[in-house]
Structures are given as structure tokens and as C-alpha cells.
Amino acid sequence: MTGIGFSQVAGQPGRTLNERRLMAMRAARLDAMRDLAEQVHGLRLDSRTTVRDAVAVNDQIAGAVSGSIRGARLVRITPKGEDSYEVELALDADAVGYIVKAARQR
Description:
It comes from Cereibacter sphaeroides (strain ATCC 17025 / ATH 2.4.3). The chain has 106 residues and is of the alpha+beta class. The protein has one domain (2-104). The chain has helices at residues 17-41, 93-104, and strands spanning 2-8, 44-52, 55-64, 73-80, 84-90. Strands 1-5-4 form a 3-stranded antiparallel beta sheet. It is flat, with a radius of gyration of 18 Å.
């Protein structure tokens, strides 16, 4: 199982470009962890739609994921363009089984 994360350099805190690049890589790694957590634990969706005179006037959707990820292996960090990074993490089947089993025991 793999998780992919992305982040932009420009939006990161840091005094120098190199600091912002490192922060972007870190943020992309966290985004990849979130992607893995969604796959392992699922995504909770809450939605609310308001209809008036047979027309949807307000449609809100919120998603949340909660769970632990352990044993993720870094596959690659790839610069994307001049201002973004992509990080790919992987979990082997044994790690996924362990995580799911631990989550069910809680």
C-alpha cells in the first residue's frame, strides 16, 4: 500500500529557501501519512445540504481521518516543478495488518 503527499515550498515558514524546501518535504511526508491513514482507517464524512424551493442553496461536506500509522517506509521524494515536492510512503501487508489489529483492540 502506498501513500502520496504533496506540498508547496512558497507557503512554508523559514528564513532561507533551503529551510522552506525542508519544511515542504516534511509537510508532504505528513500528507502522505494522512493518505495512508485514510486507506487503512477510512474517512469519516459529514455532509449537510439545504434545499429551498427544490434548489440546493447550501451544500457542506467535511471529511476527517483519525488513526495511527507505524512502519511506513520512505519510497521517494521528488521535486515537482520549481515550487513543490511529492513524497511517496509505503506500508507492507504485515504492517497494515498490525495497525488494523491494534486499532480494533482500542
